[in-house]
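Researcher: We're teaching a course module on how sequence relates to structure. For the next exercise, students receive a sequence and then see the predicted structure as tokens, so they can try to spot secondary structure elements on their own. Here is the exercise chain.
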Amino acid sequence: MSSRLLLPRLGGRALSVIAGRRGTDALSGVHSAARRFIVDMSYSAHFMDFKGSSIPSSMRKLVVNKLSPNFREAVSMQTVAVPTPGDADLLVRNRFVGINASDINYSAGRYDPSVKPPFDAGFEGIGEVVGLGLSASSRYTVGDTVAYFGSGAFAEYTVVPAKESVPVPAVKPEFLTLLVSGATAYIALKRLGDLAKGETVLVTAAAGGTGQFAVQFAKQAGCHVIGTCSSDEKAGFLKSIGCDRPINYKTEDLAKTLRKEYPKGVDVVYESVGGSIFELAVNSLANKGRLIVIGFISGYQSASGIPPLKGGTLPVKLLQRSASVRGFFLPHFISDYREALGSMMQMFAKGKLVCEVDGGDLSQEGRFTGLESVFRAVDYMYDGKNLGKVVVDVAPPSVSSSVTPACKAATFSRRRRKSGTHQAMAAFNPECKEVRGKLMVFGTGGGHFQI
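Model: And here is the predicted structure for the students to work with:
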């Protein structure tokens, strides 16, 4: 499975596996000192950091109102009240959200037919904790940065169960690329690829969100890597991350190139396109070759969601070569998730893994900024223009620009120490007036007080 086949309800189970009891076990470089429980605060249910006017009374979110693979037709923007986190929840101010090919599968109702509109859209987000429930405060505090995946990410604020959140060192969009796209490539190649040094690996849509990781992991395994792409720019990027033979199928005949340059076939195919590309991949398999299906984006915009396929001779072709076709769906490999994410975080921290992000800077209308840009970003990806993972910058500029340097320094200091909630309150710099004196604790009886 890839980001193209994300199961909306995957997040809870997957992230609780890697989060561990304290939510930080799997993530190298994210250290957490022991926390103390809040003293005599049993009457309080929620902690909300207003930072002046940082948390408004209302927010915008994208809602699926009609089932359709046409994202613009299915989804609309709505203004609603900012939600309040439950006892074990976090309220996250989203800074970046990830765009997935599966967003239109979700808007078409293909994952769970029992779910009827209206329902929230979006799978992946990363941002800052601005509110949390009492139980959640044993592991998190206001100002912590977290990433998550689950339904409802296409919003300015999202309530996320604490156990489904992944602590990250900073609000960087690169971390979004690891949650699904990176994990899919890592686990699929490790568990189903059976890679051996010297083998040949073909990655389709190699310059996309998950393809970029398949290229790098196959290269790290000592394989010769072929990557398909649609432009010379993408071919150049693929070379920069270790791809031995990028093939721009707009200027080269893919089938002829593979037959000529790899007459014995390829040992492993990491396939996400489907249709004619899947058929070509089958025909290109070597003896004992393995074809891993992680998606079929070429069919997602159709009524059925499945691209046409001439598979009548598939059994014969597999038999003749002792080859196999292996499907990958991430929820079936949750036991591998913690190790995968931890390993990728280490590689990224050490500069050994490239996490390419496409924020739309080169798109005709410019960078994907603001929630309304999600529509453009989905179109951009389906037009095949992206290089890397497509990400939208959701946060209004006024939110980040309203915080003074002193406040930013205090916030960084608090995140680094990871102390208890009441200790974090005291850690704010006195000069940070946007924060100090603005932390509101909401009691269940309706009363409140200022720190």
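Model: If you want an answer key for the exercise: The chain is about 30% helix and 25% strand. Confidence is low (pLDDT under 50) at residues 1-26, 28-44, 399-451.
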